[in-house]
Amino acid sequence: MKFRKLLNLFGKKSCPGCNNSIRKFNQIEESVSSSLSSIYSAPQGFEALSVDSYYCPICGANDRDRLILSYIQRNHTSHCSILEIAPSKAVRQQLVKNKFSYRCCDLFMHGVDDQCDITNMTCYADQSFDIVICSHVLEHIHDDSKAISEISRILKPNGQALILVPIPIGLQANLYDAAIEDSETRIKMYGQADHVRMYSRSGLTDLIKNSGLSLKTWTRSDDELAFEKMGLSSTSTLYIGIKQ
C-alpha cells in the first residue's frame, strides 16, 4: 500500500475512497471491456461507466464508488445515518472510517450487518435512515417498484436514496421480460446472467418519481473540477430520490 502511494505521489487525480492523490486511475479489465461490447442494448457504452478510469490503483474504489463517496462527502456530515444495500468494500470502509452511523444489508452476501430482502426490509422501522445507498442492485430485482417503496419507507423525512443502475447511453425505454430465464439471453439483453432488466434513464427516473420520492441528479455540471479529478465520465449521473 505504501509503495503504491509513493508511485502516485503528487498525482493530478484524487480518490475519495482513500483520500490519496492518483497519477491515473486504472482501466477496466480487458475481459470485462470485451464482454460489454456484446450487450446489444449498449452500443454507445454506459452512462456512469468510466472505462479508461475505472478503479483506484491504491484502494480499488471503482467509478461508481467514487461518485457516491464524493457526493456524500460534499453534502453530508457524519451525523447522518446511512444504510448501504449490497455494500461496496470501498464505500463501507470509508464511511465507517469517517464515523458515519452506518449499516449494510444484503440477502445473500456474507459479512453484512443485516440479512434481508430489499423488497421486504422488515428489520428496519419506518423513517430509520437519512441516506440509503442502492448501487447496482435494482437491475437484479423483478419487483423494483416494491424495492423502491421499501427504500422510501425507511427513509427519514428529507432523507435521500442514492441510486445507480447500469444505463446504456441512448436507450429509450426499459428492457424487461420476466419470461427470460436462461443465462445466455440475459447476458445479451441485460449484461449479466443475474440481471433481469436493463434500465433507460427515463425508466429509472419514472420509477423513483412514481414511488413518491422527488428527484434530483448530481452530474459533472454540478462540480466540473471534482468529476475531472475523480476520473468520472462526462455522462456520470447519480440519481437522488428525496423523501418529502
Count of separate structural domains: 1
- The low-confidence parts are 3-7
Shape: globular
How many strand elements? 11
Query: How far apart lie the N and C ends?
Result: 43 Å
Beta fraction: 15-25%
Q: Could you describe the largest sheet, including whether it forms a barrel?
A: 7 strands, mixed
Top-tier CATH class: Alpha Beta
Average the pLDDT over all residues and give the rounded result: 94
- Order of strands across the biggest sheet? 5-4-3-6-7-11-10
Kindly report the CATH topology.
Rossmann fold
Element order: H for helix, E for strand: HEEHHEHEEEHEEHEHEHE
Which features does this protein show?
8 helices, two-stranded antiparallel sheet, disordered N terminus, globular, alpha/beta, 244 residues, seven-stranded mixed sheet, 11 strands, 21% strand, Rossmann fold
